[in-house]
Amino acid sequence: MFERFTKEAREVVAGAVEQAEAAGAKRVDAEHLLLSLLDREGSRGSFALVALGFAEHKESVRRALEETRRRAGLSQAETDALAGLGIDVTDIVARVEEAHGAGSMAPGGLAEDRKSGHRPFGKGAKDVLAAALRAAATRRDRRIGDEHILLALTLRPGVPAEVLADHGVTYDSLTRVLYGAGEATAG
């Protein structure tokens, strides 16, 4: 599949691996793909994010993803649902971190030392990359670009889609910016 990726899409994947390594994650997940996309410039995906006014929200997105990681990967919707049942996730995180250290609830825990430095791709990242292939095929695009990875992130239920939507980036708004179909307005 990677032979169909554009240079920009390959750089997003490589950047996701770097993001996972920097975070000490055992595996590359969908959140790392989003963080890598945030660092892009001069590509179709980055153009779409700028057109939607997303550029000024990059730090807010990074903070939201970090907070999600601290909550063991629970989305805000899941956290709110648990609160409705009387479960205070923030309190649980604080107690666990008090006993075991900051970030101890992060999905996958901290990475072990690996001689190869290799980080496998988690199910979420694999699902996003497969969805990017489908997004390109649906549009009859011959190559998979970083814009297809971005579109896939908005389609897959989970934290990246929630964080993007919270900042006005949805599948519909991206489609309008990337392929026409009306005015380019956020969310």
TrEMBL record:
Residues 2-187 form the Clp R domain. It holds the Pfam family Clp_N. This is Clp protease N-terminal domain-containing protein. GO terms for molecular function: peptidase activity. PROSITE patterns: CLP_R. GO terms for biological process: proteolysis. It comes from Streptomyces carpinensis. InterPro entries: Clp_N_dom_sf, Clp_R_N. It comes from the Bacteria. Keywords: Hydrolase, Protease, Repeat.
